[in-house]
Write a structure and sequence with these properties.
binds magnesium ion; 138 residues; alpha+beta; binds adenosine-5'-triphosphate; 4-stranded antiparallel sheet; Alpha-Beta Plaits; 20% strand
Length: 138
């Protein structure tokens, strides 16, 4: 079933010039880019994005990290896109991420794990509404 999911290339990924590499992998897989922008994320947007983690010890750090520089927001569409993308990005903690995944190939620290991707279709719909209020191109 065709799904649309949100991918963020976090500030660490942009700083390390991984925009092309990550986008190339997504396109090479056969998934379609239907929304794409480089932006500095407003704090309110990032707090809403990570609302599920409010109150946890790492909440402030993860919000600060997302606000520390430009991010790329992408809407990605294709068959089972939510799960396909999560698997391609790898486990949250890069030490546990499979080699061949983005985190398994390019990251070592949970504080700088390079990308975000929506965890399920419901989260994807909510996150796409937050990051692409203007809608996507399809
Ligand atoms: P993301 O939502 O960024 O794609 P994820 O879905 O793999 O990552 P979440 O559980 O949603 O993981 O955590 C959101 C982010 O918060 C993680 O990407 C990570 O940077 C940070 N984080 C999560 N758990 C921890 C932890 N135990 N210690 C420190 N940071 C954490
Ligand atoms: Mg998450």
């Amino acid at each position: 079933m065709s799904e649309t999911t949100l991918v963020l290339i976090k500030p660490g990924g942009v700083k390390r010039n991984l925009i092309g590499e990550i986008t190339r992998r997504i396109e090479q897989r056969g998934l379609n880019v239907v929304g794409l922008k480089l932006m500095r994320a407003p704090r309110e947007l990032v707090e809403a994005h990570y609302a599920e983690h409010q109150g946890k010890g790492f909440f402030e750090d993860v919000v600060n990290y997302l606000c520390s520089g430009p991010v790329v927001a992408m809407a990605i569409q294709g068959p089972n896109a939510v799960k396909a993308i999560r698997t391609m990005m790898g486990a949250t903690n890069p030490i546990e991420a499979t080699p061949g995944s983005v985190r398994g190939d390019f990251a070592l620290s949970i504080d700088d794990n390079l990308t975000h991707s929506s965890s399920d279709p419901e989260a994807a719909a909510n996150e796409l509404a937050l990051w692409f209020p203007e809608g996507i191109v399809s």
